[in-house]
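Quick one:
INPUT:
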């Protein structure tokens, strides 16, 4: 980059499943001034349900993406680092801090049996994503490895350890382990004991404040990254908590919806939202508050199916779909192509219902796909509000699906909320940078993001009141048909 002015910058990193993003954020202009990235894969395997990565891959990617972002910059201007990471992943270390086996990722489902068993033991529904289920799997299937484990970390914690030498966790990411007592923000020793008596000793201490550095950059790592040694490293957090910051969701009730391969919706709450059915994940956020979250497995993929079937592009299909009425003339698309986790129907499949002669036209099916994916999220969101969430009237929409103008309007109309669009697509990496900026300047993270909100796109999508009833009817039908077909 040709960035040369002499202001301080911070580095934000996001350790994703498919790659790593780095951003440099200027503390004076409050803008991203440079970016870098590095892609990597999940280790290929023939074992069903397995999804693993070697943690060394992440460190290599940190180097590549950071050097790319720093190109042409006076690196003495970098004054802090923050790290966001994919949640739930299991990194196990031995006595010397060496990695014992590849990390099992959030999307690894080999621990489905263990998840079922722990759900019964602990009295709330755990999905195989949760780290604790992966630990019980390890104890059962690789007991020799399990016996040598001395420390358990999550992906972003492992990167933090490499940067600083410190082994710690913070509550945002730790709330995805299944062994954090979310309300008291302490380790849940009973849940740990359900797996093994020595588990409590394997988890690192929790950092007391989300607004304080956990350590400073080690000289030998600083050399590899071309950065000044001794700069502070923020606590970091899981990617959802960091995306919330990067999308500007700092105030109570601020709600973010992401339309990607999976659909996610999360909101900032001053108190924990606890749901024993496991539909709502009881996460903590990166500011000391809470971030109830739900995730659907089927989102943008449903639209892809229509595109592949009719060999039209998304733009053509969107134009055709815009001519169809809300509610799709009574056609309901239950979008559960991959099975579903919200609700927990792993055995479910996609279903098209209410078809009449002439209904199999591309525009109608494309709109039904958009509405099905949206109603799936709305159904979960209603559960969040029923459990006590008080959302703000504004919905921040991110992810690939947010680029579709019709989808934005369907979301506004179905949720009856104003839709706004954060301008920065790499919201998790930006969130990590914002956290680092807060730590460096000595302001609380929530205050910093409130004071310097990340920019929104100018376009605001207002809900159309006239469509409200059509979507209420469509939602009632969507829920009833899904329950008839798939509720056990």
């Amino acid at each position: 980059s040709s960035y040369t002015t002499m202001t301080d910058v911070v580095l934000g990193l996001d350790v994703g499943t498919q790659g790593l993003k780095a951003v440099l954020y200027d503390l004076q202009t409050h803008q991203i001034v440079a970016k870098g990235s590095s892609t990597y894969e999940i280790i290929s395997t023939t074992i069903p349900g397995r999804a693993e990565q070697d943690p060394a891959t992440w460190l290599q990617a940190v180097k590549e993406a950071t050097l790319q972002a720093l190109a042409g910059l006076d690196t003495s201007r970098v004054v802090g680092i923050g790290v966001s990471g994919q949640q739930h992943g299991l990194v196990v270390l031995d006595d010397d801090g060496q990695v014992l086996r590849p990390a099992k990722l959030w999307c690894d489902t080999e621990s489905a049996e263990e998840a079922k068993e722990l759900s019964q033991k602990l009295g709330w529904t755990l999905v195989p994503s949760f780290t604790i289920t992966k630990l019980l799997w390890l104890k059962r299937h690789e007991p020799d490895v399990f016996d040598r484990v001395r420390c358990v970390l999550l992906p972003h914690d492992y990167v933090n350890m490499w940067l600083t030498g410190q082994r710690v966790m913070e509550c945002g990411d730790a709330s995805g382990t299944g062994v954090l007592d979310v309300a008291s923000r302490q380790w849940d020793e009973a849940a740990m004991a359900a797996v093994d008596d020595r588990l409590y000793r394997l988890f690192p201490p929790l950092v007391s404040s989300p607004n304080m550095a956990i350590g400073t950059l080690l000289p030998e790592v600083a050399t590899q990254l071309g950065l000044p040694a001794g700069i502070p490293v923020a606590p970091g957090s899981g990617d959802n908590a960091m995306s919330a910051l990067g999308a500007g969701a700092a105030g109570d009730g601020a709600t973010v919806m992401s339309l990607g391969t999976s659909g996610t919706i999360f909101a900032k709450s001053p108190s924990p939202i606890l749901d024993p059915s496991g539909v709502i994940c009881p996460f903590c956020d990166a500011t000391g508050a809470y971030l109830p979250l739900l995730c659907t497995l089927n989102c943008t993929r449903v639209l892809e199916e229509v595109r592949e079937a009719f060999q039209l592009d998304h733009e053509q299909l969107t134009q055709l779909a815009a001519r169809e009425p809300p509610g799709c003339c009574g056609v309901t698309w239950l979008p559960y192509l991959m099975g579903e986790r919200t609700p927990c129907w792993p055995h479910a499949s996609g279903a098209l219902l209410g078809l009449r002669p002439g209904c199999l036209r591309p525009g109608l099916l494309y709109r039904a796909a958009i509405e099905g994916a949206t109603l799936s999220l709305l159904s979960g969101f209603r559960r969040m509000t029923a459990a006590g969430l008080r959302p703000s009237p504004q919905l921040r929409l991110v992810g690939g699906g947010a680029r579709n103008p019709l989808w934005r309007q369907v979301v506004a109309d179905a949720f009856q909320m104003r839709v706004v669009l954060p301008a920065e697509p790499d919201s998790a990496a930006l969130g990590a940078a914002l956290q680092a900026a807060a730590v460096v300047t000595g302001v609380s993270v929530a205050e910093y993001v409130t004071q310097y909100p990340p920019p929104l796109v100018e376009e605001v999508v207002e809900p159309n009141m006239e469509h409200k009833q059509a979507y209420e009817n469509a939602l009632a039908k969507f829920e009833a048909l899904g329950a008839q077909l798939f509720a056990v």
